[in-house]
TrEMBL record:
Molecular function per GO: DNA-binding transcription factor activity; sequence-specific DNA binding
PROSITE patterns in UniProt: HTH_ARAC_FAMILY_2 (PS01124)
Ranges for domain HTH araC/xylS-type: 8-106
Name of the protein this chain belongs to: AraC family transcriptional regulator
Pfam families: GyrI-like, HTH_18
Signal peptide: none
Transcription listed as a keyword: yes
SMART domains: AraC_E_bind, HTH_ARAC
Keywords: DNA-binding, Transcription, Transcription regulation
Length: 279
């Protein structure tokens, strides 16, 4: 998959639908990705979520049209998907720093232009990774379904809840497991746990996720957790995927938290993603 072209195609779809109601699932479907996969790729490559991009572009366009002075606020509000002038005014003022009425009178406004994603060559830092073939395996996890649009805040809370409830006393908690293809739409499954072979039986509140045999790209992350993991995810999408001879398989990916002090500058963790060679 050409990630740069895919994200640019998604941006084109969003630009064509600034005045229409579109969901994350709609945008992802337009480029043949799962909602989860698209949300993560878009956010890592652009620095904002698809929802943020749409909101800022709509409010930018709305500002430009209001600045011309001929359109009514209520007409612009409805055009860009707001139910009332009040909700539009609140969002517009938060983004622009001035009210719609002030924009109509000529107050300066902000404008965020359309994004275009490109590959850039930077630095010379090395990404340490390896490709390994793993046999099929079962993972034992305490899992929950998450919405792709809200998971960024909800998953850290899920980890806090896991430790607060002392679930770690039942099962080692060295894996963060994201099962992208187990559910449809905007929802995916995320679990905390270990290999099923590490524990006898399935404790209450846990379940088995089966993972087929795959080739895996394993990326070494060095530094405090979760910052090092998050930084490596960004590098994978920005630096590795656009030029690698491999592409992602949209199934289960893993974050492997190795023994050690997670707050240490030399703490080592891993990101493991199933891959296949590009055709």
């Amino acid at each position: 998959m050409d990630w740069v072209r895919t994200i640019n195609d998604a941006i084109e779809y969003m630009e064509q639908n600034l005045t229409n109601e579109v969901t994350l699932a709609d945008i992802a479907k337009s480029v043949n990705l799962s909602a989860f996969h698209f949300q993560r790729a878009f956010t890592l490559l652009t620095g904002m979520t698809p929802a943020e991009y749409l909101r800022k572009r709509r409010l930018s366009q709305a500002g430009s049209e209001l600045a011309k002075g001929s359109e009514k606020v209520i007409d612009i509000a409805l055009k860009y998907g707001y139910d009332s002038p009040e909700s539009f005014t609140k969002a517009f003022t938060r983004f622009q720093g001035v009210s719609p009425a002030q924009a109509k009178k000529g107050e300066p406004i902000q404008f965020m232009s359309r994004y275009t994603v490109r590959i850039t060559i930077e630095g010379g830092s090395i990404m340490e990774y390896k490709i390994e073939k793993w046999e099929s395996m079962d993972l034992l996890v305490h899992a929950k379904d998450f919405n792709a649009e809200t998971s960024e805040k909800e998953i850290p809370a899920f980890w806090n809840e896991y430790f607060a409830n002392k679930e770690y006393s039942k099962v080692p908690s060295y894996l963060g497991v994201c099962a992208q293809n187990k559910t449809n739409g905007n929802v995916f499954k995320y679990g905390i746990g270990c290999k099923a072979s590490d524990v006898k039986g399935v404790p209450e509140g846990f379940e088995i996720i089966h993972v087929p045999e795959y080739d895996w790209a394993i990326f070494k992350c060095v530094g405090p957790s979760p910052d090092a993991i998050q930084a490596m995810w960004e590098r994978i999408y920005k630096e590795w995927l656009p030029v690698a001879e491999y592409e992602l398989i949209p199934d289960v990916d893993l974050e492997n938290y190795l023994p050690g002090d997670p707050a240490s500058q030399d703490y080592v963790s891993e990101i493991c993603i199933p891959v296949k060679k590009k055709n």
